[in-house]
Amino acid sequence: MKYKPANHIQDLQYFGEFGGVNPSISDSSTYTFLSAKTMFDTFEGNQDGCYLYSRHSTPSNLYLGEALAAMEGTETANVAASGMGAITGALLQLCKADDHIVSSRTIYGGTYAFLKNFAPRLNIKTSFVDITKLDTVEAVITPNTKVLYCESVSNPLLEVADIAGLSKIAKKHGLTLIVDNTFSPLSITPTELGADVVIHSLTKFINGSSDTVGGVTCGTQEFINSLRSVIDGANMLLGPTMDSLRSASILKNMRTLHIRMKQHSKNAMFLAEKFEADGFRTVYPGLESHPSHNLFKSMMNEDYGFGGMLTIDVGSLDKANELMELMQERNLGYLAVSLGFYKTLFSAPGTSTSSEIPVEEQIEMGLSDGLIRFSIGLDNDIERTYKMMKDCMETVGLFENISLN
Ligand SMILES: Cc1ncc(COP(=O)(O)O)c(C=O)c1O
After folding, report:
1. 349 upstream amide cis, omega within 30 of 0
2. If we measure between CA atoms, which residue out of 261, 144, 145, 140 comes closest to residue 200?
3. How far, in whole angstroms, is CA 64 from its chain's centroid?
4. DSSP H or E run through 281
5. How far away, in angstroms, is 49 Cα from ligand 1 center?
6. Cα distance between residue 107 and residue 99, in whole Å
7. Most buried one in 51, 70, 131, 317, CB count within 10 A?
8. Which of 299, 282, 334, 335 is nearest to 184 (CA)?
9. pLDDT digits over 60-114, tens only?
C-alpha cells in the first residue's frame, strides 16, 4: 500500500481564534508568560505549548510544519525562511569539523556551492558522486562520513535516486540520509523508502505561486528539537526564520497542491512525449526512455504522475536563448529560474541555476549548453500550448538542426 499524502493534508483541522476556518496568524515576535517559572521551563525545553520568541517557533510556523510533516510522514518538521536555510541548517546540525558528506553530484547549484565552497571553510568535506551508482556511493564512505545527501529527482538533470538502496547503505554505515524532495512532492515519499530527513524548498511546487521563498526540514521529533535548541541548534542560532504571515499563506496554498501536481504532471507528460517524438533529446522520468523510469514508477505514490519538470536539448546556448525569448514574447511562459508556477518557466541551467558548477564538471555530468529546463505550468489546453511552442521552435529554425540532437 502506497502512502496517501494528500489525505493526510486534507484531514488536518484547525480553527482560528474566533472560530475562523483558517488558523489565526501569530503576528508577534515575542510572547508573554503569566509566571516567570513557566518562562524558565520553556527555555529549558520542558514546557509544551508555550512560545518564547519567534525565531524559535510560532503557532503559524508550527501549523505549516505539521502539515508538511503529515505530507512526508515524519514525526514533525521545522519550517525555514528558504530551502537553503533548511538545507544548510540540517547539514550543519549533523556535521562538525573533520566530518565528511557523500552527495549526489547533480544537485541544485546553491546546495552544490555550499558543499563545495562554503562547508570546507568549516573543514567539512564532501565527495560528489553519481548517485545512481550505489557501488560508487558506498566506495567513497569513510569513517568520518556522517551524511548521505541527494535529491529524489535531481536539479536540473532529473536523475532519480534509488532511495531504498541509498537507505540500506546509510543504515549499514550509520549515516543520516537526507533527501531533498523539492521536485517530487506527493509523488515520492522518501521516508517510506528509508530516508531519515526530508527537505523541501517550499518556494517551488508546494507554495506554487512564486511569491515567496521558504523551506522545510521534516524528520524525527528528536532531530527537529535539535535544530531548534537554544543551546546549539543550527536553525535557532543561524536564524533562517520564516515569517508567520508567509507560513500562513503557504499553508493555504498547500491545500491545492494535489490538484496542481496532477495538472503539472499531466501537462509535462504530454509535452515530453511530443518533444521526444519531434526528435529532441528529452528527459522526463515519465518517458520510457528515461534510464530510471522503472525506478521512479516503483517509488511513486498513486495519482500525482512524474512531476512537472522536463528538459530538452536544443543543441546550443544561442538556440536555447533564442527559443526561450520567443516563447516568452508569445506569452507561453517566463524566461525565469525556479519552478512550480501556474505558467511555464524556462531557463538554461548551465548559465543560471547551475552556473555555480564549473563548466568542466557540467560537461562531465551531462549538463550541456543547449539544455533548457522547463517547469511546466497548469495550462488547461496543453495541446494549444504545444502547437504554439512548436511554432516557436520552427521559427528559430530548430527543426533544421534536429540532427544535432
Ligand atoms: C532542488 C532544490 N533544492 C533547494 C533549492 C533552494 O531553495 P530556496 O531557493 O528556496 O532557498 C532549490 C532552488 O532552486 C532547488 O531547486
Report:
1. no
2. 261
3. 16
4. strand 281-283
5. 31
6. 20
7. 131
8. 299
9. 999 999 999 999 999 999 999 999 999 999 999 999 999 999 999 999 999 999 9
Q: Which distant-in-sequence residues (6+ apart) come within 8 Å of 69 by Cβ?
A: 75, 76, 77, 218
* Atom nearest to 353 CA in ligand 1: 14
pLDDT, tens digit, 9 for 90 and up, residues 342-354? 999 999 988 887 7
Distance set, CA 208 to CA 169, 256, 378 (Å): 34, 9, 10
CA of 108 to the centre of ligand 1 (A): 6
Extract the C-alpha cell encoding 73.
Answer: 510522514
Residues sharing a CB contact under 8 Å with residue 365, sequence separation 6 or more, in sequence order? 105, 106, 157, 357
Crossing angle between the packed helical segments 257-277 and 382-395, to the nearest 10 degrees: 40
Task: For ligand 1, pick from 160, 181, 204 the residue to mutate: most ligand atoms within 8 Å of CB.
Answer: 204
Alpha helices in 175-256 (DSSP H): 221-228, 234-238, 244-254
Give the residue ranges of DSSP H helices in 229-331: 234-238, 244-254, 257-277, 293-299, 317-329
Contact 324, 336 (CB under 8 A): no
pTM recorded for the entire structure: 0.96
